[in-house]
Design goal:
The protein is mainly alpha-helical. It has ten helices and no strands. The two termini are 35 Å apart. Keywords: DNA-binding, Transcription, Transcription regulation.
Length: 211
């Protein structure tokens, strides 16, 4: 995901409807960052956005739908750039996207709030899954293209490779609470790439290697 603490530039064509959505999603992100998922309320979001409560309840209905829409918007911003290049370029761009997201002063707190809530709340977990399904799916397309070019073994699971690059970064920040930097991202890419070239992400071969 590209760095940037706020949802600047998310107003799409559509006049007032688009402006209302952008204001509400920005307010939702701000409330999540400050209060966390479990203290998020529709009324607080309405007040912060300067939008009538009836408008928010009519369009979104519940706080979970608000958070799901926010995560959808954030996922759109994390899409890979066109022409991402070689598989090394793709994986490094993906790792940098995660790095920038998690270390951003505002966005990182937002993501951490949803991740923390997802541990014990199935609705929050659903919103988080939707975010990562979208993000990983888009990045995996570029890995799949690299497989077709012969850069990785046939049958390599692009989505699993993208997850393998991202997972150490999340573990380092969310579990052991160690700082993240460019070196950390580069090491994650290098290790995942070695495994991918050895066939670890080809489902049948990967299973054999594990055995």
């Amino acid at each position: 995901m590209e760095s940037g603490s706020r949802l600047a530039g998310t107003v799409r064509p559509g006049g007032r409807t688009a402006k209302v959505r952008a204001a509400v999603l920005q307010a939702t992100q701000d409330e999540l960052a400050e209060r966390g998922f479990h203290r998020l309320t529709m009324d607080q979001v309405a007040s912060r956005a300067g939008i009538g409560k009836t408008t928010i309840y009519r369009r979104w209905g519940t706080r979970v739908r608000l958070v799901t829409d926010l995560m959808r918007e954030l996922a759109e911003r994390s899409l890979p750039p066109p022409g991402a290049g070689s598989v090394e370029d793709v994986l490094m761009a993906s790792a940098r996207s995660v790095l920038e997201s998690l270390t951003d002063p505002h966005l990182g707190v937002t993501l951490q709030a949803v991740i923390a809530a997802a541990v014990s709340d199935e609705e929050a977990a659903g919103a988080l899954r939707a975010f990562y399904d979208r993000r990983i799916g888009e990045w995996a397309r570029f890995v799949d293209a690299a497989v077709e070019r012969g850069e990785l073994p046939p049958g390599t699971d692009g989505a699993e490779l993208i997850r393998a690059v991202s997972a150490p970064l999340y573990y380092r920040l969310m579990v052991v609470r160690h700082p993240l930097d460019e070196t950390t991202a580069a090491r994650s890419v290098a290790r995942a790439l070695v495994a991918a070239r050895a066939g670890a992400f080809v489902p049948t071969l990967g299973s054999a290697l594990e055995g």
